[in-house]
Specification:
Layout lengths: L6 H19 L2 H39 L18 H12 L1 H7 L2 H7 L11 H16 L1 H20 L13 H4 L1 H36 L7 H21 L1 H26 L2 H17 L1 H5 L9 H5 L1 H21 L6 H33 L5 H6 L4 H6 L5 H30 L13 H54 L1
Helix pairs in contact: 1-9, 1-20, 2-7, 2-15, 2-16, 2-20, 3-11, 3-15, 4-19, 5-6, 5-16, 6-7, 6-12, 6-16, 7-15, 7-16, 7-20, 9-10, 9-15, 9-19, 9-20, 10-11, 10-19, 10-20, 11-19, 12-16, 15-19, 15-20, 19-20
């Protein structure tokens, strides 16, 4: 069993993660301030670089999808897709954004709307609402999926077409990768980014479930109950990852999509339908029209605290998640052309995001229009209850809240099991076949580790600590991916 594990990658990663856990646990009082200081320093010093790289990857996606390499098939000309289009989209969407969309779908547009840092004095409700939706689209749309797409394409191309293992070190050649510890270091950066990126999502999901159950008076809201939720979901994720990709993860992903369609349809039909449709059309047109200015705004002449807490946090989150989502979508994308892969990974999920944010965001803004400060005050006080306060205005509100918790739960489990699967693949022995499930012992260890880290981060500073962990791990991987993109292009041009 242990012969199927890459010992250096596994032990080095586990050592660094364990050290972080112990240091944080023994310094809980100082951890919160330290996390905050680190986040501010990195954001203030390297924010411009993160924004530049995110835009660069989007341009690179367009170039590859419509360039001379667009028809190259991942796996060779005779390769056939392993999953149907429906299952493929369901799995990559569930693993990619699910928990975050439910957490921020209502909260983010309202928080942007109520932020004095974003709007000119005396701005109309319409202008503030439209700008808020544009920013939500910026944070959840093309850029994040472009990052996932490039990293995923690197994994797929070098594994399926170059017959190299599912590892970040496979992207590179040269002096660094000729040394075993050079290759190990590259892979460990990806593993650490993956672990902390997923742990952040799990922490957000657990916090929202706890707040929702507390709001419904089902469970007293506390740190202890949040920890209990993390443990329960970790165990559920463990069961799912043990069942494997084609059973546990596939079925959960399908379930996620069905529940989300029902949930979204209810809000659309029983909410301000005409207002939502008007807003959707206007928001999308405005976003595309202002994409260049939105995506290059660094707030260089203003207080950067908003930028650090939103745009830079999101972009860093996408980079931190990119080895996880990238490898996962590579694993399920055998037999697809580069164009098919990139359109499927970037355009289709982005369209789903625009629809989801457009329905929930505009419905929330409509509530704010009818009853000023009704949502914004509550959400600014506690972001985790935003979805449940919003749902209270709808018929069958208790049923909807229960459904929301189930959806968050399934997304939570899907992120956990997919993350454990991917991390296991990154630490499996080189000789493991790309189509084989990674060793059971690895899947079990990493599934448990994700839950433990989420708990430690919540104990060390709550949501602030989660954000910091993402930024700290996302920045070095963003730089690494830029070199990987160059390596991919060089290999395609040979």
């Amino acid at each position: 069993m242990f012969t199927k594990i890459a010992p250096k990658r596994f032990l080095f990663s586990l050592f660094l993660i364990t050290a972080f856990i112990l240091i944080t646990l023994f310094n809980l009082n100082e951890a919160d301030k330290l996390f905050s200081d680190i986040q501010k320093y990195i954001s203030d010093s390297l924010g411009w670089l993160i924004i530049l790289l995110a835009n660069g990857f989007l341009i690179f996606v367009v170039y590859l999808a419509f360039g001379k390499h667009k028809n190259l098939v991942l796996g060779g000309p005779d390769a056939k897709p392993e999953f149907s289009n429906t299952n493929w989209i369901a799995m990559l969407f569930s693993a990619g954004l699910g928990v975050g969309l439910l957490f921020y779908g209502v909260a983010e547009p309202i928080l942007h709307f109520s932020s004095d840092a974003l709007h000119a004095e005396g701005a109309s409700f319409s202008d503030k609402a439209n700008r808020s939706m544009n920013l939500a689209y910026l944070h959840w749309g093309f850029h994040g999926w472009a990052i996932y797409g490039i990293v995923g394409l690197c994994f797929a191309y070098f594994t399926y077409n170059k017959n190299l293992p599912f590892r970040v070190s496979s992207f590179f050649s040269g002096p660094l990768t000729k040394n075993i510890w050079g290759r190990v270091s590259l892979d460990v950066i990806a593993i650490i980014a993956t672990i902390f990126g997923i742990a952040t999502s799990l922490g957000l999901g657990a916090n929202q479930i706890n707040s929702g159950l507390g709001y419904m008076e089902v469970l007293e809201e506390s740190f202890t109950s949040t920890v209990g939720i993390v443990i329960v979901i970790t165990l559920m994720g463990l069961i799912s990852v043990v069942l494997g990709l084609k059973v546990g993860i596939k079925i959960l992903s399908q379930m996620n999509i069905i529940l989300c369609i029902i949930f979204l349809s209810f809000i659309f039909l029983f909410g301000p339908t005409s207002y939502i449709l008007d807003g959707l059309l206007q928001n999308l047109g405005s976003y595309i029209q202002n994409l260049l200015s939105l995506s290059t705004n660094t707030q260089g002449y203003l207080d950067s605290s908003w930028q650090n807490g939103w745009t830079l946090y999101y972009y860093s989150w996408w980079f931190a998640w990119s080895p996880f989502v990238g490898l996962f979508i590579a694993r399920i994308s055998y037999g697809r052309s580069i164009r098919e892969f990139l359109i499927g990974v970037v355009l289709i999920p982005s369209a789903i995001v625009f629809l989801w944010m457009g329905v929930f965001g505009n419905a929330a803004l409509y509530q704010e229009f009818l009853d000023p400060n009704s949502l914004s005050t509550a959400i600014n006080n506690d972001i985790a209850v935003s979805l449940f306060i919003f749902l209270e205005q709808y018929p069958f509100s208790q049923l909807l809240m229960g459904m929301a918790i189930v959806i968050i739960l399934t997304f939570f489990v899907t992120s956990s099991d997919s993350g454990a699967l991917v991390t296991s693949m990154l630490t499996a022995a080189k000789k493991e076949n790309t189509k084989d499930e990674p060793p059971m012992i690895l899947r079990v260890i990493w599934a448990i580790s994700l839950g433990v880290i989420a708990i430690v981060l919540l104990a060390g500073g709550g949501i602030g600590a989660l954000q910091t962990s993402v930024i700290v791990t996302g920045v070095p991987f963003a730089i690494l991916v830029s070199f990987a993109a160059k390596s991919l292009l060089n290999n395609l041009n040979k």
